[in-house]
Specification:
Order of helices and strands: HHHHHHHHH
Largest sheet: none
Oligomer: single chain
Number of strands: 0
Radius of gyration: 19 Å
Helix content: 55-70%
């Protein structure tokens, strides 16, 4: 997957704003995902729901990987002309909102898996606006919602693993490949129409 992401980022060459390309979002998402995994590997296996100072950083890393993967989906569709408020995906952090927007604009044959949708739903319940996993208080000064729930990291990591292909960009890369093939077909049609 890393070689495909690198290729997808580099194939546009100088002059292309690669920072806004969906593959750049995926490369970063994959980094957050792997960083979360590395921290989980440092936790004691008998942790259960006990407090550990790495749990919230792990949750933030996983959540941000998912957010970036959703934003990559939106960027793929934006490049194909889907309109939304310019920069909508940069300002929006609600995972359910991002998922709903992405799902509305994906081609009908593109299906997001149940594990991916489930992980988005879990995070939207835990930390809908990306504050609770990052700060000791919510954005409005209230105690974050995590004060009322207990959490087991290892089963959650298994849920993340079930959605790993999509978080790492399988759907986005398929869409990029498909759109590149369509563009190539259109170029060939144009060439053939001039030649005939």
């Amino acid at each position: 997957m890393n070689e495909q992401l690198t290729y997808a980022i580099l194939q546009f060459g100088p002059g292309w704003n690669t920072a806004n390309h969906p593959a750049a979002y995926l490369a970063l998402a994959r980094g957050y995902l792997e960083a979360g995994d590395a921290l989980v590997d440092r936790l004691p296996h008998d942790l259960g729901t006990s407090y550990h100072p790495l749990v919230m950083p792990i949750m933030f890393l996983y959540r941000h990987a998912i957010e970036l993967s959703l934003k990559a989906l939106i960027r793929v569709e934006r490049e194909k002309g889907v309109t939304a408020k310019q920069g909508f995906e940069n300002r929006e952090h609600g995972l359910a909102i991002l998922l709903r927007f992405a799902a509305q604009h994906l081609p009908p044959e593109t299906v997001l898996s149940e594990p991916y949708r489930s992980v988005v739903e879990i995070f939207d319940t835990i930390d809908d606006r990306s504050y609770d996993c990052r700060y000791p208080t919510a954005n409005d000064g209230r105690s974050p919602s995590r004060a009322t729930w207990s959490f087991e990291v290892f089963p959650f990591r298994a849920a993340i693993s079930a959605a790993r292909e999509e978080i790492s960009g399988k759907v986005v890369l398929d869409l990029i490949r498909r759109s590149s093939a369509d563009e190539e077909r259109e170029r060939m049609k144009a060439v053939l129409s001039v030649l005939t």
